[in-house]
Amino acid sequence: MSSHPILFDPQSPAGENRESVTGPKGATRGKATIGFVSLGCPKNLVDSERILTQLRVEGYDIVPTYDNADMVIVNTCGFIDSAVQESLDAIGEAIQENGKVLVTGCLGARDDEIREVHPNVLAITGPHAYEEVMSQVYTHLPKPEQIPFENLVPDTGVKLTPKHFAYLKISEGCNHRCTFCIIPSFRGDLVSRPIGNVLDEAKRLVNAGVKELLVISQDTSAYGVDVKHRTGFWDGRPVKTRMQELCEALGEMGVWVRLHYVYPYPSVDDIIPLMAEGKILPYLDIPFQHASKKILKLMKRPGSSERVLERIHKWRAICPDLVIRSTFIVGFPGETEEDFAELLDFLREAQLDRVGCFTYSPVEGAKANELPDPVPEAVKQERYERFMAVQQEISAAKLRARIGQEMLVLIDEVNPEGAVGRSYADAPEIDGLVYLSDETDVKPGDKVWVEIIHTDEYDLWGVRVPE
Ligand code: SF4
User: Fold this and answer.
1) Residue ranges per domain, the chain?
2) Three-state DSSP state, 370
3) Which residues form the TRAM domain (predicted)?
4) Which regions of 331-456 does DSSP assign to beta strands (E)?
5) CA distances from residue 443 to 15, 163, 176, 258, 421 in whole angstroms, order as listed
6) Is the CB of 303 under 6 A from ligand 1?
7) How much distance in Å is there from the Cα of 450 to the middle of ligand 1?
8) In 10 A of CB 298, how many CB atoms?
9) Strand pairing of 33-38 and 61-62?
10) Atom 4 of ligand 1 has which residue's CA nearest to it?
11) Using a 6 Å cutoff on CB, does residue 183 contact ligand 1?
12) Do strands 434-437 and 460-464 pair parallel, antiparallel, or not at all (unpaired)?
């Protein structure tokens, strides 16, 4: 079989291709397997990373060969003619080698063009359409067969030479019903893992060498709500099934603890002091999605924006190092220029550190599809660009302010040109990187002190300083 040069290989640190291993489709026993081809610019790569992360969270295995994949996703680029051709060729190769192909990305916005050449693709979605991609995956591939909650632990069990970061899933499902989202329709309502099991898994990972735990769920701040914050046991002592107690216990494990998908409920106020004390990383991933009250109501978002700005200021007063990352949707049905202006005002005031933005695209089966007043594609795109322009200035200024600071950096990768890592301010796969030119005397998983000497809108460059 052919080995396309960019079929994503999860085993390779840089995600590049490696020698093909042939075998029957779905060769990873009991798992649904997906091959992934990523084309185009860094923004597209970030989209790929988001989709890959979600696939991994859902329990799909990412495989580096067409033969072993139950399905292939091609994330395309449509920027210039040669990129279009490259994308069409990659789709053609995936169809020939595998047969079951989903197409996403920029060229996906021109589905007629794709169908003309490749009428047999299973489905086509546009750029930043994570949820739609996931919904197509669920449509065409059976859900992974596995024990609930076990899917984030490597198949091999805990390895002796583990990756230095690991995702820790604390619950499944969600009690909310955001109108653009179909996750609760197939994952069901919130089911929290027993706290003892979560902490056992965390400890196992730490003992095996993991240096950073990334807490994930659909709604991390709601952890334990379904079991009325029942008291469980861990390490011979009672521990409540609640975000606060979870963070306190994880904070004792001596590794970085990073919280994702936190909604701004009042309970979040209680974990900010843990961040200020250095128990867990001063980093919050809060998907705000919008700032206009009207749009948030149409989205049926949890944790309304009321007084959110006030609370962000309060959190920063307690923990000045706090980094907030978020995602937003522009062009949601009913979004007027006034709503959008409100969103930009929020951005300017909130001064968030890391922000992702997506243009709204309907997901099959989502309630939002029934809403009136869709925003024309051209307006969505124009708002996306204005949004990104405002945020890029904020991000660049925030990163510039780090020049001269010394930061602890966790090394992710070492290559002949130097090392690449991240500080507390950056989560793997979604945020920025710290580049250390010519620094080859370190290995993945090392933590080193670095003085920041240069930055751009996303990444930082630094030099190592003595401990
Ligand atoms: S909080 Fe909303 S967007 Fe997130 S999983 Fe639940 S319903 Fe979906």
Assistant:
1) 31-140, 179-281, 405-464
2) helix
3) 400-466
4) 354-359, 406-415, 418-422, 434-437, 447-455
5) 17, 11, 42, 21, 10
6) no
7) 37
8) 21
9) parallel
10) 218
11) yes
12) parallel
Residues above pLDDT 90, as percent of the chain:
60
Strands 406-415 and 418-422: antiparallel
d(CA 43, CA 457): 13
Give the H/E segment covering residue 330: strand 323-330
CATH of 179-281, one of 3.30.750.210, 2.60.40.1120, 3.20.20.70, 3.40.50.150: 3.30.750.210
- Rounded Cα distance between 404 and 408, Å, is 13
Residue 40 scores a pLDDT above 80: no
Q: In what order do the strands lie in the sheet with 33-38?
A: 61-62, 33-38, 71-76, 101-105, 123-124
d(CA 75, CA 96): 17
Q: How many residues does the chain have?
A: 467
- Write out the binding residues for [4Fe-4S] cluster: 41, 77, 106, 174, 178, 181
Q: Position of tokens 């709604």?
A: 219
The answer to whether 289 and 312 are in contact (CB under 8 A) is no
CB–CB of 307/346 below 8 Å?
no
Closest CA to 342 of 330, 352, 353: 330
Residues 6+ apart with CB under 8 A from 308: 264, 288, 291, 350
Q: How far is the CA of 18 from the centre of ligand 1 (A)?
A: 36
Closest-lying ligand 1 atom to the alpha carbon of residue 261: 4
Lowest-pLDDT range of 66-75, 300-309, 380-389, 458-467: 300-309
Q: How far is CA 72 from the centre of its chain?
A: 20
For domain 31-140, the CATH architecture is 3-Layer(aba) Sandwich (3.40)
The pTM of the whole model exceeds 0.90: no
Name the CATH superfamily housing domain 405-464.
Nucleic acid-binding proteins (2.40.50.140)
> Strand (E) positions, 226-275?
231-234, 237-240, 256-259
* Same-fold call for 179-281 versus 405-464: no
* Interval between CA 143 and ligand 1 midpoint (Å): 19
From CA 262, how far away is CA 274, in angstroms rounded? 15
Question: Taking the chain, what is the end-to-end CA distance rounded to the nearest angstrom?
Answer: 50
CB of 337 closer than 8 Å to CB of 344: no
Q: 405 CA to middle of ligand 1, Å?
A: 37
d(CA 104, CA 111): 10
